[in-house]
């Protein structure tokens, strides 16, 4: 049997992205409470995410968002990591308010945000171990949030994933000037 890497690269990236999802799920969480949601998109859903992000960039006049939209089209998969809002009742003050009870609605619990960061770190560390190309993109997560893909979540980070001879998500040129 002869297997050419080019013929199986896409499937390999998908399998590796699944491992990234597991790494995000098993990452440590504040008080051991799992408020993390993880999903992966491929193919037509990547195009839909790219189109949504491009439109957001146009509406806001932000060339960097339109550049990120183009970068998404280079991905075989995009891993989305989010959190549901749930105060951890630590009264830690990291949200800017002395107690959880004083935190106004709409202000995220800092522990939820930290949990997403740790999950993202675990996912991209797994990708690095597997020699995948990635980039952490708040912009892709924002577009996914606007598309309503992760109901109940208020904070999403996107991680496009590929395996190519050069990471397509770095050393990027701006297609339109940033405002």
Describe the overall structure:
With 179 residues, this protein is of the alpha+beta class. The chain has one domain: NADH Oxidase. Helices cover 45% and strands 15% of the residues. The protein has five helices and four strands. The protein has helices at residues 5-26, 43-60, 63-72, 110-129, 138-147, and strands at residues 36-41, 77-84, 133-134, 153-162. A four-stranded antiparallel beta sheet has the order 1-2-4-3, with helices on both faces. The radius of gyration is 17 Å and the shape is globular. The model has no long low-confidence stretch (mean pLDDT 93).
Shape: globular
Give helix and strand order, one letter per element, not per position.
Answer: HEHHEHEHE
The rounded Rg comes to: 17 Å
| First-to-last CA distance | 54 Å
CATH architecture: 3-Layer(aba) Sandwich
Query: What proportion of the residues is helical, as a percent range?
Result: 40-55%
Largest sheet: 4 strands, antiparallel
The CATH class name reads Alpha Beta
Flag low-confidence runs.
none
In terms of DSSP E residues, the strand content is 5-15%
> How many helices?
5
CATH topology: NADH Oxidase
Supply the number of structural domains.
1
In CATH, what is the homologous superfamily? Answer: NADH Oxidase
From the helix content, strand content and strand pairing, which structural class follows? alpha+beta
């Amino acid at each position: 049997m002869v297997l050419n890497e080019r013929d199986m690269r896409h499937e390999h990236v998908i399998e590796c992205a699944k491992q990234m999802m597991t790494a995000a799920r098993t990452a440590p969480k504040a008080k051991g409470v799992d408020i993390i949601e993880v999903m992966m998109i491929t193919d037509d859903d990547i195009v839909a995410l790219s189109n949504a992000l491009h439109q957001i960039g146009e509406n806001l006049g932000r060339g960097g968002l339109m550049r990120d939209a183009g970068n998404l089209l280079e991905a075989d998969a995009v891993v989305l990591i989010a959190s549901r809002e749930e105060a951890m009742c630590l009264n830690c003050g990291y949200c800017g308010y002395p107690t959880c009870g004083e935190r106004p609605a709409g202000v995220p619990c800092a522990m939820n945000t930290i949990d997403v960061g740790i999950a993202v770190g675990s996912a991209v560390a797994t990708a690095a171990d597997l020699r995948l190309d990635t980039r952490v993109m708040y912009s892709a997560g924002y577009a996914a949030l606007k598309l309503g893909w992760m109901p109940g979540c208020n904070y999403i980070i996107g991680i496009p994933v590929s395996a190519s001879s050069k990471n397509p998500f770095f050393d990027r040129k701006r297609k339109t000037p940033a405002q």
